[in-house]
Structures
1.
Amino acid sequence: MYNGWISDSQEIINDNSHLSVLHTFPPKVSKEVANTLVTQFNKDLCGNVECKILTTNSQVDWAMEVICYGLSLPITEKDSVLSCVNIYSVWLSALIKPKLSIPQPIRREPEVYARKMFQHLRNLFVPRPDDSNDPNLIHFQTGLCEKALNDILNILREAKKLTRQTWNDSLKYLLWITDCLLAPPLRIGSLGERLSRNLLSTLFRIWLLACSDSFPEPPIWKALSDMCKRWRHHGVVIEQWNELSLTLTLHLDVILHGKFAHRRCFNFESDYYTIIRKLPKSEAIQCWFRFLHIIGNPVELSSYEIIAHTPKLMEVVYESEIPLDFSQVGGLNQLPFIFLIVMQGLSNIIDILLRCESRSICQLLDRIAMVYPSYPTRINALPSNKDFVKLPDHNEGNESPNLGNNPSGLIASFNSNTIVQLLGQWLFQASQIKILPEAREFEAGKAEACGALCRLFSTERCDKTYLTNYLSRFYTSIRLGLTVNEVSKGQTLANIILNSANLFRCDLKGVLILLPHYIQALEKILLYKEPKIEANVPKGELRRSAIHILLSIVSFPLHFYNLSIYDNSQDDSNKHADVKVSSFRLRIVNLMLQALQTETDSVNTQMLLGGFLLLTEDTVSHSDRWNNSKFDLSQFAKMHVLEDANLSANLNFGPGDSVDSDNNVSTTTSTSSVTPLVSRRSASNVIEFAVKQRSNTKTENISSVNESVEPTFLKRTLPPEYDHPISLCYLCVLMITERLEPLWKGDFSVTLMALDVLSNFAHVPINADTLSSKMVINRLCQYIESQIRRPPRYQSRDLHSMIVASFSCLLSWISCHNQLMEDKECLQTVLAVVEQGMAGIVAEEELNHTGQGILKGKKMRKPASGRVREAAESVLYYLLNQLNAFPSPCGPSTTSSLLDEENILDFVNNLRLTEGPKSISPVVINKDDIKYYSLHKNTIIGLFEINFEDDGVPPTAVVIARNATGKYVWVSQLRHLAFGDSKLAAANLRYISRPSPMDNLGSRDNVQHSYFPNCIERIPVTNCSNSIPTLDAVVDTKTMPSQARFKKLLNDQAKIEDDYFIKLRNANSNVPYPNGSIEAKQPQPQKHFKVARMLLTQLGLLNLDTLQANPNELLTPLVQLEASDDYNRELQLLDSFPCRVHEVVYMFYVKSGQSTLSDIVRNMDDLSKLNKDFIEFIHSLGWPMDENTYPNWRINVRSKKPFSRQCSVSDDRSQELESVDITDNAKTSSESKKLNKNSMFYHGDAISEIAIVLVGTSIFPKFKAVDLSSLDGVVGPKKLVEMAPLAEIESLTPLKKRKPLLVRDSSKGKLNRQNAVNQVIDHETIIVWLEKFEDYLAYPIKDTLNELGICNNQPDGSRRGSSSNMNNKGVERETTIIFVYPLQNGLYRIHLTVTSISKGGVAGPLIHGMAVSKNVLGKLTRQTIHNIANRQRLEVESASSPFLIRRNKIQEIAKKHQIKVNFPDYYVSSF
């Protein structure tokens, strides 16, 4: 830098102008003269009166010679030395404000005399050999020196328009005294050691003042650099250099990017900054570059020999009577610590230039009391608080960073190659220094340099292209740093791992060459509880960074399957060869499996769980690489279960019975102490054997288990012979389930993460047997049972949240594996745990007490909590209503029928017109013919009958049932035979013809039939037989006429009958045989029935015995409802309620360099211009929505009134837009369809659904490039994004206007939710696609949340579910932003930003920083969105599931519209 310039250092060192004339006299004489005159001068010259002496220049010169000698007096002459300092302090003030007490010559020429005083004041700082043993005298001299330095600093700071000569003399004066004190070896307690910090601070500050007024010439700068090299064996020199360099670098950042652009500057305070901020820009940049190089090459501080060749230090070596090692020279024993400090300073400068987070700069500015630290404390490659952005409050000051409106200040603009060229040479040299056995302490500085290089080359910039020679040197440095040997025990390796978490996700060319070395290093860290390296680093942070690296490379083996790299990670040179990246897959798999078994940190465990799912999904997506070979999972499972059984039999699970990892056993998991709910004998006897072996205690004793006992399990790995996607999936779920209850039951966040990931494992598309599925359901039921049975002191909200999450996980596995419910024992297991969730363990206790079963109606219900009961009921509802019913005939967009009363009535009534008048009864059916009933207050049934005239159609009833899980429509027909026997049924309905008569029937016999036996006359008559007298026996004169009349009537009637029979016989004799009038024929079938009554009767709902039991009371099971207009509206509202949990996700596309919301929104107007990978991504998230095929969701841009589940975005003219009527229906429909296809995607499964909205100008019309607000002279309407579940088929009935679940508050222009149907908590999810990764720093989060209405406040100014409800400040909703960036290697980097962190942590399976392949990106993103929403539902007590919302609405309708009548009136009104 200063080549060709002569340094002034020797001139300064050899300058003797500080000597006085009195120094030539004997000390006794000079001392007596100085003491006498200085005392007098102090009395006459330091007062407030005008100076009457020293009126000429010669007099002043003579007095200054005396004072010059007085400053060199022994410190024992305290008064004299102090008087000299006071005199010069007053005289130097003439530079700023001359006083009357100052001699007139000095007031006339202050700068001339000030330069002389600078020379004389050198004597004050010269150490006194005679006083070196007296600490009090040294302390007094230190105070005088500090006073002089402070006075000079204050005077020069306030002085104006000083000449260059004055500034040069002041700088030379400071350089001379600093060299005098700091060039010699360090002595503890000496004047140099006491004064060094203040002296250097004063030197640098005055130097900065000189740069501001009169920039020093190159010889002075070169002198400063040469002399700093003489002082750098003092740690304080490097500390002050660090502080000054960092402050100048921060100011350079301010110059280039504006006020405090760097995030760390807000709390930064430095003594230098008050001076630096006043420097002109050009001078500030020059100062930054020159001060950066004043200590020369910092790497020289790692060499004792180089530093010891300083002249003053070499004098000590030459004067020593015994040979000295260089490290024994005074002060050089702290050289390792000094080397570490200088490397930390360079690291912090790189952090500022790169804008990356690291520990606070202020920590470096505090003096460290230790001689040298044993490890570098920098940990800045991990996700820090910057990943969890907290939006600033509008009421706070402007000092906080504005992430929404000033994003450009967070983007580094320094070219990476420039930084490497500036500082890389030093870092490369420092990272490759050879550590000798006698100088192992220097490894800390080397480790710091390697860490800085890792951060430099893994910075979050996608447009950086490092030069090839820089990359090669970097890879060489890292490869050497990852080597562990007898000298280097692993400190460098640890710091490289800590700072290179982003290395494999930064698109560096040729970075895969480091893959073997990093895998080898990760194995030293993650395979053991205690890393096999000697490094005093935070173990949790080290493992976390290692896990980040592991998550970055987990997709490499299958993504770069056939790519060859050079592997020289082995010490044996014969093993160096080209290998394929796929050969490392099994090592990575086992590394992740064993990392979970040795992990104890909560955050690290959650990251590994997310990595498990990524590993499995990625492996399954490439299952074709296994050539579709069949795999026998039972043998692999049996191997693991038998090993577990042997371990359980041989080990005592106590605190001291853990097996070390080196013996292939890890102390991380536990056996289950829960007895199975039922005998779980299934197709897999292996699982049953495992359960019996590992369930040796009863469930009643679970509370007595000592939770402090550390459980033990065999370490699980994936052998090469069992390498298959099926075995990997089985092993992952096995490890998660076996650790769920014994190890993680006390960790809320890990348990939730494990359950989330386990739920997502249910969706892994593996065509295997039911072995793993049964194991998961079995262990989930055990876990739920054990948690419910925990003692009351453990029952808490967090515990209930874990139980709810377990039920949700169980439901996921049942919905994805419906075939398991066909197994009787598996179904019994699920139903048993569902009963425990709904009723608690009271029913089981009663069963154990009574010894006999208890009917359902008589069981006591004491669930653990209402949330647990609801979660168990959701599983039961699914089993009863939706098992094996997804997808429905209407497609995956709905689980309910799309038919309603109007559709069915239109269809039935139209049959008469299409099929003819004989097909159906001519009576038109209307809504009044539909009878509605409430069944058990949780189901609404609508019934109406259809009577067909056609002989082939049996009586029909249409049933419309609405319950908590949806709406279902059935057609019920009364048939004697099944549909399969239709021919036989038709034959039974035809008349049977009589057989033809036979000719050989013979003659007809006339037989007289008697009414009594023939032997009746032979029975003897007894007196008893006459107990009832005959009519003739009781006749008398009074009754005789009546009897005669009665006999006559009998005779006449007998005659008439005989005549009739004779005529009839004569008539029948003329009739041919057979007689058609008396022929026996099959009766006609009845065509008119009360089908509804018969159906309800057959279902046992209209049993007469039950109905007549309480004829005067209201019927409880089946209640008739009164149909009215209000009732019909409430049914429509009920139909609009969702049947599954649903989420709405907003997606944005950010082009390179975009930072404003308007530019970002306009990107979605033309999807054809966007990245094709983005188009594939949104199609992997779901399917494009269409009006006809996805009737449950709708985007409508021309609707005046909102629909259900709508998201309305208003503009400034929302009041006007509400009153506009649109008549151009054709154009409206066309635009709606176009937007519908291009702006919304959908995905649904049996229990959840998600809609992805592509946010463009159709959603935010005010961001359009061209103003299209007018349409035919009318102000255009507001734009709505509507997700409305419709209860009708589009082709049959028009779209109905329904009461909204999300409505727009026109006064605020934001979205508000109605509490009655609030199933999604105040949490939103946004997906942002980045073309340039660092644009996530500039993304307008605040503007986006405002436009989407997410930053709205609650009425009371607080947020539900937040612990900070005591304040009245408005709080934004919790929002998760998922940034997706496509790497050049074909993978996708994930960056998560959340506005706040809930107690349960951040949901997975996507982990911050994860590198994901294209095959699984869409699926993992969907699962993350669902898990985030589920976490928020767990956080807020008021969150209700869809089935609960529907059930409450059904109960409300039944209570409001029931008809209260007794039995007779009920029966008459019904039928």
2.
Amino acid sequence: MGKSKSVPDLASKAMVFWTSEDVKQWLKEHESLNKYTKQLKGTTGKELMKLTDDILTQIGIKNPLHRMQLINTRDDLIAQQEQDTAVKDTDSPIMSKPASPTPSFVTPQHSPKGKGPILMKSFSRSQMNGTSNSSSSGFSFGDTSLRRSKEGNMVVLDDDGLSVVPMKGVQGKAISLVEVITEAYGLWKQAYYNASNCEALVSCAAELQGLVLANTSLAARPTLMANLLEAVTEVKEFIATFSERGWLSRLEKVSSDKEEFCRLDRLLISVAVEGGNQPGPEQEYTDDTAELRKQLDALGGMAALQDPETQLLALPDLEQFVSARARAVLASLVAQEVAWRQSSLQTGPHQVIRNPEVRLWWWRSFGSALLQTYGSLGTEEITWERFWSSFPKGLEDETASSVAQVIYNKHTKELFQAAISRGNPNLVTPVELEFSLPRNINLAQQCQILLNWENSYKTLSRSAGRMGSGPRSTGSTLSAVAEEYRPVVNTLPEVTQLLLGQERHCQGLLDALQPDQGQGVPQVVSLCGAPGAGKVNIAVMAAETLFSSTLWCNAYFADMERVETGVECAFQFMAAFAVTADTSDTCNLMSWIGRWSAYPIGLIVHCPPDMTARLLKHVTHNVEKMIKIVQSGATLLRILQTHPLLQVVLCASEPINIPGIDCVTYELEDLGVDNVAQILTSIAPQIGDRAQELAEACGGRPLAAHMVGTALASGTAQLEEVLQAVASPAVAHLHPLDRCIRYIVSTLPDEFLHALLLLSLFPGSFERRAAAELLGMTSTALSKTRSLLRILTTCNLLQYSSTSERYIMHASVRACCRSLARELGLTYESARVTFIEYYTKYLAKAAALLAAQAPVSAMRLFDREHQNIHEIVRWASQGPPEEALPFYSDILWESMPLLSGRLDLLQREVFCKAVYEQAVEQKDRVAQGRALWQLGSVLGDQGQFKNAEVPLRDALAILESELGSDHLDIAKACNGLAVVLFRLHQYQGAQDLYARAYDIQSSKLGPEDKEVATTMNNTAGLLKAMGKLADAEVVYRTVLDIREKELGPDHVDVAASLNNIAVLLKTSGQFEEAEEMYTRSIAIKEKALGPNHPQVALSLNNLAALLRKMIKGEQAEKLYMRSLSIREEALGPDHPQVAASYVNLAGLLKSENRLMEALPYFNKALDIRERAYGPDHPDVSAAQISLAELLKDLGKFEEAERLCRSAINILEKSVGEDDVNVAAALSLQATCLQGLGKATEAEPLCRRALNIREQAYGAESPNVATALTALADVLKEMSSFEEAEALARRSLVIRERSFGSDDPLTATSLNNLALLLKDANHLEEAETMCRKCIDIRQRVLGESSLEVATTWLNLGGVLRAAGKLEEAESACRQCLDIRERQLGSQHTDTAAAQIGIGAVLLKQGRVDEAKTILSKAATLTFVKLGERHQQSLDAMNWLAECKSCQRNMG
């Protein structure tokens, strides 16, 4: 292949500075490259330089020869430009080549035909082994003089770094180590300053290369090259920090890097010393940052470089501090850095995004403006419309251009949305972007991958050929599409290459998951094996095979290590799919799985060896739910498919079976001595014929073989020492794996052994910064931490994931380290304190997001460190160091709103008590008060309000004595106690506490602070419950004014205030203004959250309830249906909020006496709640009670009574026997027993309900009046009229005292008393009561209200019984007239009025008229209410009397 034909204007312009148009021009200048224009659309020069064979495959270039041609041509041009730059660019010393020629890294004689190693670039694994693979990487260099060598060793640079492999007739280009450092690691593009230091390192590496080649024996080279790789990698990572985000802050802090450069120099030179070489004296580096400090001081410091108004850096003055190459893009670099610094200093949802470009874009688009205007921390949910208004044009210029050429029309936007969305499909969150747009992948390329995947798999899902039986029989019709397919995003861990012998297990697992045609395909495969057998490794490799053959669309990974409770288990499953929620309710996860149920996906679950029966139950329960969600429905696609759409691999020590689910077990056997011996020989060839003996010592475990082989290859262990150590009687009781781990750990130098034992404190994965804190290394020594962690990783004692940038220790290694620490008597108390302190600060950061109304982002941050955070919670009850108490105290006081959602109630209670005991022991009064306050909150959450009151009062007293009466913490304590008193109906006490909290907060924070507004909002809710509606309205409106001023008129908190005022206005009968408030609230939410957000659905429900109250049933029904539709789409058909919509809609239909239409909705609601929560949840009891109410109205008393009994049983277990909800259920059960004619059984239930309400509310509470009326009704049925009348009169007195004599509720008591007096034949007083009730209702509710109509009908019944038939007919016709106008002629309540009139006509002897109107009413009633309804029975009785009169007359 010839040299590139660059056009003149591109030849003089470094590729790194090419725009996307430059790339397009370059492609057009080459006929052979022009065909790639579409795939590389929008690619910049910088991105072109980073393109690898794998990326080219993912963006659609399928032919490997075409990929090789493109990469080679590009590299030719880069080499040509570097040669030109070496001569012309004297301002950039890093680009200058050393004066003396650099020897190529071949044999000592530099002959390409010798047996020495050859260093090659971008060489695939399959090519190393001499095999062919059409999808393998091609050569990424452009020299046409390729060299061939048929024997010997070669050093290869591939994606994993430098490695020594046997040569098997492959060809490659010999290059120098200097080229490796400068080209492969791109140091010349980095280091915005200290460029001379970078060049000195490269020169040092060139010297070292010559020393290694000239003076080292061939046998020793593999070990030296491994050490050299470590040194070069560390240099590369350190230098890379100069181009990462935050380089500007290095200028501001003026931190010296001289010590670090010198340390790295010594590290490089020490490799040569190991080879028997003695280099010259250590080179002294120029401390550029010291000179920088002098220059900055001379200018007056960093402030002198900033514009006084904009605070941006003055670019001309800054240019002297950066290299020549950086000056060309200095303006954009500085602008990006300033914005990045501003965003990094602020708390907000953008913090969760790891991709720096996307993170900065979110902050600029949705965070900074809100912060400047209202002090808000931004929003975490935005509509896709808002997203596209800023994306991608709001990104940095170069990235925006490249992404815009990938996502350029409506179709590509829709594909992108489908690939990104993991929650509400109408919204996008930072969490979804963080999961789908990783940090270490070019943004435009990742977008292209997302679109390719979505397009490809949609095509695959429509292809019948995709339903093949297994990975060995992928249909040829799929090949064109499948070649482009790559999984979009997943949570699979990074694993090493399969070892010898494990290929058999991988194929066995594949055969179990995808058996031959004719055999049943399992839904669950239990992959069993001992610790260290490589279960997860094999499962992940099998998953990658399945989705590369398109039998799985994607695969996910859930790690149950250190999980104990159902709450933790639920969150782990949600984290596996990146579906985040602020509670352990998995409905969001099930909804997402349901939306993806047309695509086959896999789930790998890692179960710990010591998994408890409790955890096993939670794991299998969640797996069963997911599988059943996927199975539900019967679309055509699902019917056509011959294998499950969700398959689960459970990696465990023992087989796991799930009843009702197709499960199979695949057990891993030890690899066997022969396979382990081959593994050892491939890693450490020097062991020779002792491999079998060593393999037996490893016990057939891959982990042991890897660790021992690596130690032998690096020279840190000797064969005889290994064999002697693992055979020692002192470790005879241990498994061979544990013996090997213990030996490898014991051979570490003291520094590394100490570090490893400290790192074993981490129960799960951890970040480098957390490790640095634990190891006592400052943040400026992260490179030293990186070096230490890399060495432990090389020894297979740690594993590193480049995707998540986290380390993890194998459970067997961790157990060995902890055991060794105990034997050595090392408690590491100070390290544990550091550990607790670090994660206390981390929790505070996440809790700040929760307080800023970003719960999803807060939970995502928590998920990253959940195992480590749960560890410090466990430590609290295990005697933690005394120094840890202040941090535990801070967690209880500041972070529990976040942590409480991730712990079950028992864990929270144990945690609070443990911290309290520590505080008592250390006599820390503030910590005692905080622990007591949190304990009271836990008891309150359990519904134990009486038990919660005592610790909350004690906490308030302690905190007040220690902090003073006006401390802000006192306001928080007052608010917490007020909530409990409110639930205990101690309203005055709660009001006093709220008032005190308000006084403290307003004086400390100002009267318009958001915390003050929250306290006022709670106070208004209390006033409303106390019946002080006017006072509550004043407070609610004040809160609204504060929020509008502080947050802006379109904030969702403003919408919440409007909603609260509307609820209050509805209660007081101000329907028109309430409707206006609801409408405005909905408009704000639709604008802020989009028209299809669940919050909008909530407001629609509230407005519908108001319209229902206003007798606008048709409008209310439409709103209920819209709310239901929103929730089904956003949350899935099985979400509890969907059940709530069913209940609301059914309630409307029931109020309109459309009972048969309401029945299926109540049944659906109950079914959803039972599946979502289980059969014993309080919300299930609420659904049972609603359904029982309807069945009672339908006359199905037996079914209704059975549901009441079930609901009471649930409530008594969950909230206690004396809860007011139990009282309501008892009253309903009593009514059902009345309907069954069992009044004597109903009486004790009513008396118990009355007693509960009196105990809860007090004897004179309006809530007691309802229970009095119910008991009076039962006693009336038992003919105990005297006691019944006394109870009814007591109910009337209570309501007159509570609400006044003209209140509608007082009128209701008058109406009830009138009916009782009628049955007791006290007709005159009954008539008086009815007329008084009519008068009140007409004045308060209007003459045409339905309540007035009901009383007219009751009066008609009293007058009929008194023989005042003309007045009775007039009263009944008054009722009929109102109901016909309000409800129409076909309503069952209208029929009830007709029955009343018919009864009067019959008494008047007008039999024919009576029969006509009764027949019409009976027909309507039978159709709509059923024959068993009481109204139907009444109509039938009156008709029967009509027929009897006709017979008598005849």
